[in-house]
Amino acid sequence: xxxxxxxxxxxLPSGWEGTIAxxxxxxxxxxxxxxxxxxxxxxxxxxxxxxDRGDFGSGAVDVMSRDDVFVALVEFAPExxxxxxxxxxxxxxxxxxxxxxxxxxxxxxxxxxxxxxxxHEAGRAFCLYVVLGDADDAHRLVRDVxxxxxxxxxxxxx
Amino acid sequence: MTTTSLRPRDRRRTxxxxxxxxxxxxxxxxxxxxxxxxxxxxxxxxxxxxxxxAVVGSVLTIAxxxxxxxxxxxxxxxxxxxxxxxxxxxxxxxTINDGANTCPPGSYVAGWWKIDRSPYCQGAxxxxxxxxxxxGASCRCRCADEGTCDQRRVxxxxxxxxxxxxxxxxxxxxxxxxxxxxxxxxxxxxxxxxLRTDNRTTTHNAPCLPGRNxxxxxxxxxxxxxxxxxxxxxxxxxxxxxRGGTWRRYERGVITWQQxxxxxxxxxxxxxxxxxLEGPSGPLGYPxxxxxxxxxxxxxxxxxxxxxxxxxxxxxxxxxxxxxxxGPTGVLGVPTEATTPVGxxxxxxxxxxxxxxFASGRGAFVVAGVHLTRYDALGGPVDSGLGYxxxxxxxxxxxxxxxxxxxxxxxxxxxxxxxxxxxxADVRYDALGGPxxxxxxxxxxxxxxxxxxxxxxxxxxxxFVAGTIYASRSGAYELSGRALxxxxxxxxxxxxxxxxxxxxxxxxxxxxxxxAQGLLVEVDxxxxxxxxxxxxxxxxxxxxxxxxxxxxxxQARTDGAGPDALEQAAFTEVDAFASRSTGVRVLDDPIRxxxxxxxxxxxxxxxxxxxxxxxxxxxxxxxFQHGAIExxxxxxxxxxxxxxxxxxxxxxxxxx
Lengths: 158, 656
Known about the structure:
The complex is a heterodimer.
Chain A: E1 2-5, E2 8-11, E3 17-21, H1 26-32, E4 41-45, E5 69-76, E6 113-121, E7 124-132, H2 138-149, E8 153-154
Antiparallel strand pairs in A: 1-2, 2-8, 3-4, 4-5, 5-7, 6-7
Chain B: H1 8-37, H2 46-62, H3 64-69, H4 74-79, H5 93-96, E1 107-115, E2 126-133, E3 142-143, E4 153-154, E5 174-180, H6 184-187, H7 216-224, E6 239-240, E7 246-250, E8 253-258, E9 262-267, H8 268-276, E10 296-299, E11 302-307, E12 310-315, H9 316-324, E13 335-341, E14 347-352, E15 355-360, E16 363-367, H10 369-378, H11 380-383, E17 394-395, E18 402-406, E19 409-414, E20 417-422, H12 423-431, E21 442-449, E22 459-464, E23 467-472, E24 475-479, H13 481-490, H14 492-495, E25 512-515, E26 518-523, E27 526-531, H15 532-540, E28 556-557, E29 567-570, E30 574-579, E31 583-588, H16 591-597, E32 613-614, E33 620-624, E34 627-631, E35 638-642, E36 653-654
Antiparallel strand pairs in B: 1-2, 2-5, 3-4, 6-7, 7-8, 8-9, 10-11, 11-12, 13-14, 14-15, 15-16, 17-18, 18-19, 19-20, 21-22, 22-23, 23-24, 25-26, 26-27, 28-29, 29-30, 30-31, 32-33, 33-34, 34-35, 35-36
């Protein structure tokens, strides 16, 4: 399944689902009126995503099984692309399973492991956040994630 | 049967009591379930149980019925979902940072997310700010103090939202979370504006944070950092203020709220003083809209200004005047004593580094320098005799000095000295042109003479360069020149026998000055005294312009000092005599001359009993106690008539 939006494209394997979306909540629209920056968020998961999710997957990671993975590609305001936090260039398509940690999670849930990478690509600033359902099976689950990352492309914003 | 009626308060207490028991039962069951489910977790300590009881109490005040009927823990009602450490979320900073809603030392603001339409922000977005461990700092992954329901994790989740301080690379553990109801980028400019949202955390809260019923003041205090703010800890509950507003006092300041202005924070010495003065419920009212500066703050009915380490209030019209004069950087400098009522209840006094302002219903005016020194020495508004000022000091131009008007007098600058001119004397002085007029400047202040405890009439004396004003119940009048010298030489109002002046020098008869008991008449450079009846009669017949002419010497007492003493005065055209028994009698020529020749009052004829006159036959005639004098109109022959011992006065016969 091909997923496209906001200059981001991904091909998802069978059984995966995902979204690339902007926050359309009225509160957010109102905040944009006073200077907030609205940037897209891509959620890619090997399981059925609940509709009520936080940008970094809260609500989704609660319901994922040990065999599942969750990927969030979270964009920041483009002026951040040059900041030290986003100094790494390019979306990492190969991930080291050893870099995943049970403590690298927004919310520490038993058995899960996470990895967070800030980078810039095509003049855009991103954070890649990956959650594995089973920290003990990181090698297998990381391969699943890499399979999706290999299809992920980021274009410069027009 | 006995029935008991409950007052509303009792009913409420009973309802809470029932609800409390129900909740405690439910909470106990719930806790038992939790205990069974989490058997591996450590047992709850006695302290923790006590804290839980306290939280249940808090819940009961929020939603007792909901809690009486719903099986859930009191902890999740206060702290929301995921309050347990094992549930993976990070604790709020106020839980672990002595109540401060700020990033603790060793952490920095690393990112944030929002929660839409939050009940904790009166329906507006709520923002959760992550405080991450600073690079180089250390912290230990742990659970927050179990003495609260916010038992979430501390320094465990190695995660970064990423909108703030992006100059710091890398990801470190989230130490704790700060809560705001205002945008993070307005709270900390180091935060970017990229929106991130997580409405799954809507219920997250802690006992140290405002609850769902948070007021604007609660939220403002939260934004400032709660106990970690410049305000310090609350010093009492939020209170109602005038006109529907509210306010709350803290250790180091006050927050006020009104519909029109929103919340206003007052900190430091000014804030503490405002709190001590009962905030908007006190004499100052609410803060004004204009921004404060480091020197002070203005309110609806006054201001509070910094003076060294103190903060001093200036109230009412005095503050308006102070503001017009430039406030702390103006001519008055900083206040040194707060506005205080004056003893008479009609006004107030406020002291500043360079003067004072006295306010009354007539306005607020500055008294400064030597005038203030004098005004204070005299006793200020109540005891000085001046009352309250009516104007600021005025420069009179040239070398005339200054004048400051008060309700019942003025202060004048004479040389380097402030001199008071009081009451009617000042009114008269003003009418005469003040220091620029005929009297020149004052050289001695107004002093009271006579009156109570003396035989003399009450009045005042005020001396000027070129004269003196004597004031009494009859008015205030000036004397100058020789008349003044003579009057003073005679003893002035108390000892001259003339009393106080009744008028100024007669404009038609510039040389005549009237007094309560006489006249001073200036004749050829000499000042002559006329007293009482002769003086009155002289004025009645026209004074200097009348038939008597001018006096040729002081009125004299010629016949003893008893009650029937004779007063005598000589004029160019007549001699005047006055006594109680004979009244005022006037003799003109030729009778005057003949009477003098006959020895006058000391002669055989005694005192005159009538004015001299011309009879039917044209002869001049004067009658006296012991005889008469007739002068033939053409021959000038003088006849002194003596009464026969046994005859009536009509049978008088000629003697010579």
